[in-house]
Amino acid sequence: MTVPTAEFLSRIQFGFVMSFHILFPAFTIGLASWLVFLEALWLRKRSAMLRDLYFFWMKVFAGSFGLGVVSGIVMSFQFGTNWAGLSTVAGNVLGPLLNYEVMTAFFLEATFLGVMLFGWNRVSHRTHFIATCMVALGTLISSFWILAANSWMQTPQGYTMVDGVIQATDWWAAIFNPSFPTRLVHMVLACFLSTGLVVGGVSAWYLLRGVWQDKAQLMLRCALAFVAIVIPLQILVGDMSGLVVREYQPAKLAAIEARWTTEKSVPLTLFAWPDEKAERNDYAVYVPHLGSLILTHSWNGEVQGLKDFAPQDRPPVAAPFFSFRIMVGLGLLMLALAVVGLLLWWRRRLFDSRWYLRCWMAMMPAGFIALLTGWYTAEIGRQPWVVYGVLRTVDAASPVHASSVLTSLIVYFVTYMILFGFGSWYLFKVLRTGPDTAPPRFGFEATASRPLAVVDDRRED
């Protein structure tokens, strides 16, 4: 029996923590923009129903934001405890990028979050709306810097090696590295889709239960329209991202497609069971020429195979191969959900088709699953490099004993089960209660002692 190494356990630990953490920031990125939409619509129409929906989803946002912050703190610790080699070699680039995220994004969110959560009766309508916008902007800026750092690790640019340590020479090139633009847009759209599917799924649940009918119908219409707009854009951006991977990370693309030999006019592998030892695919189902057409936008395009790379430079095949197909399959299901929904909406049967509402409920976690499998595809496909082509994962790990990593992994697992168990219970309780009547707005009067009172519109709900 092979004893797991500290490096392997550290990878498992980081993957476990990240798998939990990424769900909550992704949800809050989309949810913050959803809150901006609801409050902007309320400012225009002054509808009590819109105000109720805003307060309802604000509670969900608060709980998700808190869980995201708690789970994210642990990740920063791991750079020192588990990945000292990465911090030593690449800290001059990654450190400032992550610090910019805290300074420009997290502080912005934290500053205006209190106003958004507790300022309804303390500031004017316009000021409260500005606070909601700033929170949403903070989540987007946060994604900008996190994706800049991660994309640099995928396609490093703007650096030089000095005595084995990476030094930034061009911050513009480092931040806007080749994979960053498409990966940023791809991630933000994934966050929006995840939130849209949750909003639509919760709406469908209410409609099936026969509660909050008017509010559920409004939410479902908004969610459907949003998913119908975003999912085609996501498919387009995903295709663009694939072209970048082909150019800058050909080994990753070969693993994603389980392509062993370099060929032209390659088929699309719908399904297979990759055998890495024998370097072949078993039980393969192919579509002729379609692989070249999708991967190179050419009928006879050439796709590089894994045999062109030394065995020690090849990523694992099975994990990115299957995770990529799960992500794509869920994306196609989202597209089908949107197309069918638009057809039912046109026929005025959107809220009466119980089978379709059940489909929405079933698709509620689809956005998060697609997000996780997409992340697994990107990160596992990058192996054996932690900074692609520059620093190997094994060299980035801290020189600690495997038992220490295993102990901390068990502690993280138990803690996360308890923490996220209570967090999930709270969120489910909020969702089950539903969008009840929001707190009334008391008579807000502008006074000289209140600096923000100058923007008060002096109107009641």
Automatic annotation (TrEMBL):
The chain crosses the membrane at residues 20-42, 54-77, 97-117, 129-148, 184-206, 218-237, 322-345, 357-378, 409-428. InterPro entries: Cyt-d_ubiquinol_oxidase_su_1. Its main location: membrane. It is a multi-pass membrane protein. It is found in: Cell inner membrane; Cell membrane. Keywords: Cell membrane, Electron transport, Heme, Iron, Membrane, Metal-binding, Transmembrane, Transmembrane helix, Transport. Belongs to the cytochrome ubiquinol oxidase subunit 1 family. This is Cytochrome ubiquinol oxidase subunit I.
